Each structure stands twice: as structure tokens, then as C-alpha cells.
């Protein structure tokens, strides 16, 4: 059975899905979407995802988008009993908490600060940078005394967060000055299955895009 992933290599949310697939030893049929030429706006793509966003996953005719919804779906269907998304209610709630923190606070604030600089030539906003620093302080606090973001085991919360945090490397945000974040980052890089292929390659593509856009 084919699982299609419509994606862009440099996208942090797309990389979170790739990391999850690696952790589950799942093979995805990768379908590159050319956003620059509007492939995501074509009728056939809009049928799959009316929001025309990537990543979009299609599994045996079932279409789902938003990376954190995708990764929870993948573990629920293909990783029953996996510690990636524990079934015990309190443990799962903590993973969900970190996922919502990522989408609603950490990655959102990064996007609010950095993407206008890259794609619209807007000067850096110090107030928005302060909000990112606040989010990093929170993450550092969450990681105090913890090997991973939601406890002693690698979970999809780590895979989502590491895709976001690694993207900071393309910016002027120094997340490594936060000791717990730095330690956790190196831990996930060395323990997440297939990290190099699933995240580092796409991160390099993201860095190249940023460099080319900022030179314009």
C-alpha cells in the first residue's frame, strides 16, 4: 500500500513527517511540490487539501495535512504500542502539550520573526525576537532534568521540535546559549533514526533558500 507525502525538503513541518516515518521504518512515496510555480494551487492538489499546504499525506485515499496531525496519525496507525506516542493518558497528554507548544508558540514565533525578513525583505523586529527568546526559555525549562521533551524516551514531540529548532540555524537566533536546549538538540540529532537523511538534508536546502533570498 502506497503512502504519498506531498512535501518541500526545506520545510520544517515536512521534515518532522520524514523523521517520524524514519522512526517508524515507514517507506513514503515522496512527491515534491513546486510552490514557486503554484503546483499547490492546482485543482488536483486542492482536492487533496483545500488549504493547499505542505506537508500533505495521502494514505490509501485518506488525505490529511498539518504536520502534527500527520505524525500522530502515522504512529496511531503504524506504530501501535510505540513509545513515540505513548498510549498512557498522562504521558500522551505531555507529548500533545509539547506538540501544541511547538505549533502555537515556538515555530509560530520563529515564522513571525524570520519569514518576513526572508520573503518580504522586512527588517528584523526586536520585539518579535524577544518573543522567540521567551519561547526558548520555556523550552529550556521544560527540558530541565529531562533527556527528551516529554520524558525519558524519544517521542514525536522531539521530532517536531527538532525540525523547528534546527531551522533556527538559518537565522541569527542563538538557541545554543540555552544549556538544556543545546544538550537536548545534540541528543536528538544522535538518537533519532535516520536523522541525517530525514532532517539534515532538508535543513541544508532551507539554508540555501534563505541565503539566496537574503541576497536579493
TrEMBL record:
GO molecular function: glutathione transferase activity
GO biological process: glutathione metabolic process
PANTHER family reported in the protein's UniProt record: GLUTATHIONE S TRANSFERASE D10, ISOFORM A-RELATED
Domain GST C-terminal: 88-209
SUPFAM superfamilies: GST C-terminal domain-like (SSF47616), Thioredoxin-like (SSF52833)
Pfam families: GST_C, GST_N_3
Annotated protein name in UniProt: Glutathione S-transferase theta
UniProt keyword list: Transferase
Listed PROSITE patterns: GLUTAREDOXIN_2, GST_CTER, GST_NTER
UniProt domain GST N-terminal: residue ranges: 1-82
Organism of derivation: Antheraea pernyi (Chinese oak silk moth)
Known partners and oligomeric status: Homodimer.
